[in-house]
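Lab notebook, bench 4. Still working through the backlog of constructs that have no structural model yet. Next entry is a single chain of 352 residues. Request: give me the structure tokens for it.
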Amino acid sequence: MAKTVKTQMVNKLSKLMAVLVLLLTINTHAEENSTQTDDSANSSKGNTQEEQSLELFKKATDYYSQEKYEEASDTFREAYNLRPSWKLLFNMGQADAAAKRHGLALESFEKYLAMGGDEVTDSRKNEVYKNIDELRKIVGSIDIEGSAGLDVYVDNINRGTLPLSGSIRATASIEHTIELKNGENVVYTKKITVAGDEKITITADELSTPKKTAAKPAKTKTPLTKEQKIHKIEKRKKLFKIFGWVSMGTGALSLSLSPVAFAKAKKMSDDIDNCLLGTCLTTLPQDKIDRDNMQSTAYGLLGIGIVGIAAGTTLFILAHKQTKRLNALSSHAFITPLFSKDQASLFLTASF
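Model written out:
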């Protein structure tokens, strides 16, 4: 019995060990596969970045050949940030200088020599040194002090994050816009001009905060006095009457002329109907055109007459309403107390 129990325990332990070995084997394979996947992903990512950087380099070169120097400068810089290479710095410097971003050009050329070192050929070094000497005469330096973590932008170009590792180079005698940003929010801004080979320092306390446009106060209308109201109503009444008479006159004239036009059109139509073929053949088409034009004129005069009379009537009604408003404003009454030795009374004076 004891032997049987012992045998069962051994079997259980053997199964447990087998399960543990299986789990360890699966976990090991999973870790190996994960490592291989990560290596493959990193390799793929590296290749993608390299391809993107190469595409950006080609794009920047095209911009440069088309004399779009600012676009070339931005695109070369984008390619460098994606896949840094000291060789790209020379292209950046050339594009910066052509775009008159002399401060950026000086930084690019100096960094090119520092990072390239002995790999830069002597002829290229001499060329770059010559460019640097010329640029230093027309470039100044700006030191910016402020809260750590703020992004520094000069003329909408990101120049780093505070605290900066060195001075910012900027083209001399040109106004530059300096902005400190916290994310997308502009915290400070200042416009500044620096002289050639000059170095200035700016602190955040000296910078001006962006101006907020103050809301314009709402315009309050001053109430009109009684005299002003009367004058305004009288002016409106006069205009209504003038245009009313003009509309009525135009309408009446048009209505009086329309029967004449209709009569003439009818006579022309009768002449055409009664015309003999031999004598009217050559003039018949033109006669019909004249008849049709006369009929159109008659209907036009009738329409103008109706509209003119209706408009005149409306304007006279509006003028009458203005008269009522004037009467309402002009009506007033005064009560004057009268006193005598024996009695007191009130005297009413009214104006309508």
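Notes after review: Residues 80 and 284 are 88 Å apart (CA to CA). The two ends are 134 Å apart (CA to CA). Flag for follow-up if needed.
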